[in-house]
Fold this sequence. Notes:
This protein has helices spanning about 10, 15-30, 45-65, 65-90, 90-105, 110, 130, 145-160, 175-180, 215-225, and strands at about 120-125, 135-140, 165-170, 190-195, 200-205. The protein is elongated, with a radius of gyration of 21 Å. The protein is about 55% helix and about 15% strand. By secondary structure, the protein is α/β, with parallel strands linked by helices. A hairpin with a 2-residue loop joins strand 4 (about 190-195) and strand 5. The chain has ten helices and five strands. It has two domains: about 10-105, no CATH class; about 110-225, 3-Layer(aba) Sandwich (Glutaredoxin). Helix 2 runs parallel beside helix 4 (about 65-90). It starts with 8 loop residues before the first helix and ends with a helix. Keywords: Membrane, Transmembrane, Transmembrane helix. This is Thioredoxin-related transmembrane protein. It holds the Pfam family Thioredoxin. It comes from Acrasis kona.
Amino acid sequence: xxxxxxxxxxxxxxxxMLNFLYFTSYLGLRFTNPVYYNSPDISxxxxxxxxxWFMISFVKYFSSETIDEWLVSSSNxxxxxxLVVSFSVDLYYxxxxxxxxxxxxxxxxxxxxxxxxxxxxxxxxxxLDEFLKNKEVLLCLYATWSKESVNFTPVFAQLSNxxxxxxxxxxxxxxxxxxxxxxxIETKNxxxxxxxxxxxxxxxxxxxxxxxxxNEKEIxxxxxxxx
Length: 227
């Protein structure tokens, strides 16, 4: 069962705000537009589709480690449900929500900007401590809604390909804010790089407000990493 560290952040997190507007706009359209929906009652096919969504979300709730993980997976599957139902009603609505879903997907850099050719390990709250044991890891703490984190994504991928002397890893503190609290990281300092040996912090470097983040040369020099 997922753990919740703070409910208030869900109100201000762009990911959750966009998904909330996405689903409420569909529900508003579904029950107020008599042109494309002949009846305000839910059809059997709609009921079956919605039921599948609720059942899968229910199962995922007990298998997720955090409320963020559960909400993200449920939201992604929910968008698929909306697409299926929209296309079954009218192609115009279907394509509208398809474009909206594509735009929302582009706002999630963890899914869209990951580089398969990079040597980066993506961590979660559940496996972070175990992974850090007996290793030297350069950990990037970022958030998917942070513009600076998005801009730094290809740079960190290049760094991971430039050396094998340290392991490169990332964790999304937007989904696991208690990790940000643990490392004492503020939103204005994202992204932050932390060098850890056997789970113990050695050095860190973070973005200062209104400034660009360090480049590849500066990062290697700061952490004394050999190419």
